Amino acid sequence: MNPPLSLTGNYQLVVLGQEGNPKIIEYTIRLIASVQRAFDNLGVNQKKFLISFTSNDKNTDIDRRMPTVAVFFGLVPSPVLSDTDSKRLKTLLDDGILIIPIVENITNFSAMVTPEVAELNGCSLADCGNDFERLAARILEGFGLLREKRRLFISYRRVESSGVATQLYEALDAAGFDVFLDTQGVIRPGEPFQEILWHRLADTDVAVVLDTPDFLASRWTEEELARANTSNIQLLQILWPGQTEGATAAFSMFHPLSNSDFVGSNTLGLSAQLKDFEVSTIVDAVEGLRARAFGARHAFLVREFAIEARSEGMQVLTTLERNLILAASNGSRTLVMPAIGIPDAERYEWLGRLYQRDLDDGSNYAQPPILLYDQTGIRSRWLQHLEWLNDNIACARSLSITDAKKWLSKIKGPSAT
């Protein structure tokens, strides 16, 4: 049996814009470097799997079977594309590929791009991050390497940092993140506050910790750190002046603040505010950490599942989309998707589409695909919902990592014993 197409191939980044423009050449170099760093943080070998296409690559054709994302830099009015870029743009539009238009000033958007691109939603250079971190994250989302739901959790001590917490909440929300902050009315009256808090923490990409002098004086903030460690969640730890890097969390990236980063002399309490540049820097740091955070949780699921599968005499192969092909000793195969966070209907749909694509390409699977997840912190009510889906939906099944060994023992081929 031939391997599924998804076991081989490359991610393709296409950069379009007026040929020879020196700014586009500079931005392209910086963008590709940022995407390469994001690949490295995610644990994907960018030298092996990432291909970039620019106007200079005239003799290289886009492989229309492979995951592709394009960026259009519109830096001059009524840009004229090279023949190569014009042909590539037509191919991308015909195939419905994600194209991200970037302009210097969004108010002049239509004048700075071609008529076909003007119909797409664009963004300004200022929204791409100081070193294209935000744009790189969107590209990875387009590749399917990062989920499009961009969830964050802010952990803080109200009495010390509620002002900065609200400020960061607003900035991150404006940058497209779905941010959990306990004062923003996300929990309805009568619902179990702590249970929902842990549920949301389990579904976060990065936890932003506001490490003020007495942050750990509260048992709740201390428990939030412990929960983050248990769930392999990466932390961006914002260190207040005088705070030092400590062993409070195993998966931390530290961002120290100085007194000069605040507006005025107040660094604590409701009135304390960070300067705009510092807030923007923190948003960029969150974007840069997302790929590393996603990669760490993905690696945990794959590692634990592979250990159990190999103990049952099975082989685990990794696809281009970072899904798994479970191969039993009798030759049967099963498609497994590691799901970071809480499984939902969109994950089922995405898995179903990948499964059907492989079937259309001639692959054979022994059973419906599996959505693999870590149940730590997920509400019991949601776990019951997943059990109901398993009993009533035939196209896919969810499987917690704690139940993997029992499930693998049931499906292994007779010759593996």
Provide key terms for this protein.
417 residues; 18% strand; disordered N terminus; flat; 39% helix; five-stranded parallel beta sheet; single chain; alpha/beta; 15 strands
Concise structural overview:
The chain has 417 residues and is α/β, with parallel strands linked by helices. It contains twelve helices and 15 strands. α1 (22-42) packs across α9 (276-311), α5 (133-143) packs parallel to α9 (276-311) and α6 (158-174) packs across α9.
Describe the protein's architecture and organization.
The chain starts with 10 loop residues before the first strand and ends in a 6-residue tail after the last helix. Helix 5 runs parallel beside helix 9 and helix 6 packs across helix 9. Helix 11 links the parallel strand 14 and strand 15. It is an alpha/beta fold. The strands form three sheets. It has a five-stranded parallel sheet, sandwiched between helices. The protein is built from twelve helices and 15 strands. It is 39% helix and 18% strand. It is flat and about 70 Å long.
